[in-house]
Design a protein that fits this description.
Elements (H helix, E strand, L loop, with lengths): L9 E2 L2 E2 L7 E4 L12 E4 L3 H11 L21 H11 L2 H19 L5 E2 L11 E4 L6 H13 L5 E2 L19 H6 L3 E4 L7 H12 L4
Antiparallel strand pairs: 1-2, 3-4, 5-6, 6-8, 7-8
């Protein structure tokens, strides 16, 4: 399972690592817990996890240079691991701050034409943003982001669905009309755990002017 940003999340009372045989986390610089890059694999299937450990350490057998499979050097450094472990000690604090930020934006934009991100019990609320009311297209989103940046606020478009990327346009696909109808209406908003209440209020004030 792709659990890139799910650290700290639960679903129906179950932690993310218990929802699939194997779940893959990202520790990229923009995640709630970061090592500067890389990631981790979590799960309950000890046999699969053992295979993952073996493959990610070059599939080396013993202390000599013998290999029984085609492996990879996917190990993070001790320094990266130490950075991640230190942050994991504050995981509950970080996730709660993310949830506070999400609730703040929900409250600030509830009386505007913009919609907030969907609510989900147990969400890690890694990202926050708004969804524009009409499918006006990516240019409207870019216009709002440009005005945000004029006011010193970082904003970005959302991820373009993979099937719309040039290299995959001719590939088979299922019905992805929901993704097609929403990705270009999303404006992502600043939501780092380090953002202050004053900064949140400033962001909301600038962006809400677009809907008054």
């Amino acid at each position: 399972a792709d659990a890139a940003c799910a650290v700290g999340a639960t679903y129906k009372g179950r932690k993310f690592g218990d929802l699939a045989d194997i779940s893959v986390l990202s520790f990229n610089g923009n995640k709630t817990i970061t090592c500067g890059g890389g990631g981790a694999v979590a799960g309950n299937d000890e046999e699969l996890l053992s295979l993952v450990r073996h493959l990610t350490t070059t599939a080396r057998c013993g202390s000599e240079y013998d290999f029984d499979m085609v492996g990879f050097n996917y190990r993070m450094t001790n320094v990266q691991a130490a950075i991640g472990c230190a942050q994991m000690e504050r995981l509950e604090e970080f996730v709660e701050r993310k949830r506070v930020i999400r609730r703040f934006y929900d409250d600030e934009f509830k009386d505007t034409a913009a919609e907030c991100f969907a609510k989900s019990e147990g969400s890690s609320c890694w990202f926050s943003g708004i969804v524009l009311p009409k499918p006006e297209g990516i240019e409207e989103v870019r216009g709002i982001i440009a005005r945000m940046r004029e006011n010193g606020i970082e904003g970005r478009t959302f991820w373009k669905p993979v099937h719309l990327q040039k290299v995959y346009m001719d590939c088979p696909r299922s019905d992805v009309s929901v993704s097609e109808g929403i990705w270009d209406r999303i404006v992502t908003l600043p939501c780092s755990t380090g953002i202050t209440d004053e900064q949140l209020a400033y962001v909301a004030g600038v962006v809400k002017k677009e809907f008054i």
